[in-house]
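We were asked to recover a plausible sequence for a given structure. The inputs and outputs are reproduced exactly as logged, with field labels preserved.

PROBLEM: sequence recovery
POSITIONS: 254
GIVEN STRUCTURE:
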């Protein structure tokens, strides 16, 4: 069984602890059904002592799988990119529509994007193993956040102005844009996780697809339409509610 279940942030009555309990129930049902191995998609740098609920409760998810008694593989991706993703697509969407793009703080913090096809291949290979294992899914290229945005801008909208802003100001601007599209653009905790370099790994890269090369091919279509997190995962809420001003945690890339 391949498990990708999680929530990106607290919203509409869905909480991280609820998601953890749902996962425990799911693993127990799998055990009773005779599932022999579970490949679980987690996130890099998930730890039980994290101050960020997204990463702390992801680690609780992992521990629940370890404690289930089922043979397992835990695959921890960094920032996932590819056709149909939300985060990178919406960065490109913002670049196409606004004259200025924010760089939060120094922009010197790093990320290592991994291609969704490489993540899938690693997950399939992990499913064919017999031993308990945990592995990060790591792209071959590493960028500072500013370098990542500059590369994206160079293909999407050359010449767009990049403006360094305090993180709180950037979050406020994201909330205003979120009101316009009736979605959650970015949460404080997501930004904190990014600035803490949680979307990186100490393991050797195991992806083969370079973001820069993928962008060369994909940039004409990237960001042409907005990808709604609420529309995709909270269908009934997205049409009825305005996103709240504050959210609990970091964006999921799965």
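RECOVERED SEQUENCE:
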């Amino acid at each position: 069984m391949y498990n990708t279940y999680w929530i990106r942030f607290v919203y509409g009555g869905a909480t991280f602890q609820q998601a953890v309990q749902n996962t425990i129930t799911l693993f127990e049902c799998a055990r009773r059904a005779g599932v022999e191995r579970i490949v679980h998609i987690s996130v890099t740098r998930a730890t039980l002592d994290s101050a960020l609920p997204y990463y702390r409760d992801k680690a609780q998810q992992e521990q629940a799988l370890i404690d289930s008694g089922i043979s397992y593989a835990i695959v921890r991706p960094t920032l996932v990119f590819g056709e149909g993703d939300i985060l990178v697509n919406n960065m490109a969407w913002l670049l196409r529509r606004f004259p200025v793009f924010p760089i939060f703080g120094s922009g010197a913090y790093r990320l290592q994007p991994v291609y969704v096809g490489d993540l899938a291949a690693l997950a399939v290979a992990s499913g064919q193993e017999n031993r308990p294992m945990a592995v990060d899914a790591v792209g071959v290229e590493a960028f500072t956040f500013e370098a990542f945005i500059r590369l994206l801008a160079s293909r999407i909208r050359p010449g767009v102005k990049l403006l360094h802003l305090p993180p709180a100001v950037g979050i406020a601007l994201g909330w205003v844009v979120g009101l316009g599209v009736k979605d959650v653009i970015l949460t404080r905790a997501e930004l904190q996780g990014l600035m803490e370099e949680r979307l990186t790994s100490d393991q050797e890269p195991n992806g083969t697809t370079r973001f820069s090369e993928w962008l060369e091919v994909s940039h004409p279509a990237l960001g042409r339409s907005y990808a709604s997190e609420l529309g995709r995962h909270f269908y009934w809420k997205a049409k009825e509610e305005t996103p709240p001003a504050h959210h609990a945690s970091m964006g999921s890339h799965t």
